[in-house]
Design goal:
CATH class of chain B: Alpha Beta
Strand order of the largest sheet of chain B: 2-1-5-4-3
Number of helices of chain B: 3
Shape of chain A: globular
Helix content of chain B: 25-40%
Largest sheet of chain B: 5 strands, antiparallel
Oligomer: heterodimer
Order of helices and strands of chain B: HEEHEEEH
Structural class of chain B: alpha+beta
Strand content of chain B: 25-35%
Largest interface: A-B, 9 and 14 residues
CATH architecture of chain B: 2-Layer Sandwich
Distance between the termini of chain B: 6 Å
Helix content of chain A: 40-55%
Number of helices of chain A: 4
CATH class of chain A: Alpha Beta
Number of domains of chain B: 1
Radius of gyration of chain A: 15 Å
Number of strands of chain A: 6
Structural class of chain A: alpha+beta
Chain lengths: ~160, ~120
């Protein structure tokens, strides 16, 4: 497995452990705004950029769908493809909210991913820096915020 | 195999069985589970973890068994310090029992094998 690349160093160890224990092929940890925080299994910034944008949009849609259907937002999603499966969920570290999306195949299972994801959440809670959360950027700066985090993960595009 | 609720109820009454579960073999999620006997009040519920890991382990054991040209494993037992985990496969699900160290393992094995053979 490739080592995770991270924007915030404190998420590296929990992300590595989650990838190894749950036998994930790839995964991205991001802010709900779409800004990447860490990733493993990807070599291209463009792939991570697409995943962040899609995950952020799916999260917003599924929350609203949950509210419409049950009066409560959906926080976890699983899609079982023929060969590969996608797990998407939110996690909290103090007041800070994150989204995680991971891909796995028959070398793992949803049950395994769920149990190790709950351990990952506990690790984030334990290791989180006890500082005030950064002020969210204006909503219109989605692209700029995404590009800045991708530059941190993969280096600036030349 | 009979209905999961019936299988779990039958197996949980076998002496020495602390918990019985029917678990999806592909996803490792609990389909039906009996309460954990002898668990201290307020102790974390470990059945979900046990189910996922036991199903995963059984799939790896199946691969090893096929690699050795022995076919599908009929019964798997993991012996630990304070008891055993027993697993029997049945098409899309696996039966998992958490068994105390003092249990009659022959009886547990027989009842688990019978549970997967019986038609619902």
């Amino acid at each position: 497995m490739t080592e995770p690349t991270v924007v915030e160093p404190w998420v590296a160890a929990p992300l590595k452990r989650l990838a190894e224990d749950a036998r994930l092929i790839s995964g991205v940890l991001l802010h709900p705004s779409g800004r990447a925080v860490g990733q493993f299994g990807f070599s291209k910034a463009a792939d991570v950029m697409s995943i962040c944008a899609l995950t952020s949009a799916i999260n917003a849609s599924s929350r609203e769908l949950g509210r419409q259907l049950y009066g409560k937002p959906f926080y976890e999603m699983h899609h079982a493809g023929g060969d590969r499966q996608v797990f998407m969920a939110r996690c909290m570290a103090g007041e800070q909210e994150f989204l995680f999306v991971g891909v796995f195949d028959r070398e793992s299972s949803l049950g395994m991913v769920e149990i190790y994801f709950s351990e990952f959440q506990k690790s984030l809670e334990k290791l989180r820096p006890h500082t005030e959360p950064t002020q969210p950027l204006p909503a219109g700066d989605f692209e700029g915020e995404l590009n800045r985090s991708l530059d941190s993960l993969f280096g600036p595009i030349r | 195999m009979k209905a999961p609720a019936e299988v779990v109820s039958t197996l949980s009454h076998v002496p020495g069985v602390a918990a019985a579960m029917v678990v999806g073999s592909a996803d490792g999620l609990i389909v039906e589970a009996s309460p954990m006997k002898g668990a201290a009040g307020g102790a974390p519920d470990t059945r979900k973890h046990t189910a996922a890991l036991a199903a995963y382990l059984y799939s790896k054991v199946s691969r090893a068994s096929h690699a050795a040209r022995l076919g599908t494993p009929s019964f798997m037992r993991l012996e630990a310090e304070r008891g055993n985990i027993c697993v029997v496969g049945s098409s899309d699900v696996v039966l998992v029992t958490i068994v105390t160290a003092e249990a009659n393992l022959g009886r547990v094995r027989l009842d688990m094998m019978k549970a997967v053979r019986e038609k619902g």
